[in-house]
């Protein structure tokens, strides 16, 4: 069962998410390679860092 918030967010996002919004785990190099310019200048965050 979807909440109204989840439904609204799904409508706002494109049907095919860009690689930068992928929820698939990976090491630092795999994550940065999803961005343009191989992630140069990107800031990354791990959920376990809180």
Automatic annotation (TrEMBL):
Classify the source by domain of life: Eukaryota
Q: What is this protein called?
A: Uncharacterized protein
